[in-house]
Amino acid sequence: MGFRMVLGAQEDIDVVGEAADGLDAVQMAEKLRPDVVLMDVRMPVMDGVEATKRIAEADSAKVLVMTTFDMDEYALSALRNGASGFLLKDTPPSDLVSALRAVASGDAVVSPSVTKRLLGRFLGDGGGELRDASVLDVLTEREREVLVLIAKGLSNTELARKLFLSEATVKTHVGRILAKLELRDRVQAVVLAYETGLVRPGDA
């Protein structure tokens, strides 16, 4: 109810449905075709990870997952299964609204502080085996540099400033990285960067 009140107050956002559980969310997403689904993770009947996977596979909508640090495993699983980002449940309303708009426009919500803490627990600190880094060999030196900065949470504007490039050029690099690595969005790029060891938790 609280989320609906916050979102319903925005002129450019319409809440078209509310689901009681994960299965309901999958069915409603297929029927209503919303731009974005705001997904919880622990729900009856079907959890948010499986629901996210099914919605992503059906291309019914983009998914933004709500999580808390005591459910990091679920959040990471959701990202691997197609979520376009994740937020903490105590996220300020203004940040929630901004995140939904970003996901709806095709971007991914990657909070540097949350991402590093999350991936640090489950990828770089013994939480899983690293993937073969040779998958990154298709990237140019510049593209690899951009991927590192994406993994550290920099936006396109920040990337452009740091690399002394135009935002249009940065967007081109990001698009090529995603295409070459066959990734859906920046969130998957972040996960891959950590999984291959290109970036490790605690890197400056």
Automatic annotation (TrEMBL):
One of its GO terms (biological process) is regulation of DNA-templated transcription. The modification 4-aspartylphosphate is found at residue 40. The keyword Transcription applies. InterPro entries: CheY-like_superfamily, NreC/VraR/RcsB-like_REC, Sig_transdc_resp-reg_C-effctor, Sig_transdc_resp-reg_receiver, Tscrpt_reg_LuxR_C, WalR-like. One of its GO terms (molecular function) is DNA binding. Residues 1-104 form the Response regulatory domain. Residues 132-197 form the HTH luxR-type domain. Keywords: DNA-binding, Phosphoprotein, Transcription, Transcription regulation. Transmembrane segments: none annotated. The keyword Repressor does not apply. SUPFAM superfamilies: C-terminal effector domain of the bipartite response regulators (SSF46894), CheY-like (SSF52172). It holds the Pfam family Response_reg. This is Two component transcriptional regulator, LuxR family. The lineage of its organism: Bacteria, Bacillati, Actinomycetota, Actinomycetes, Pseudonocardiales.
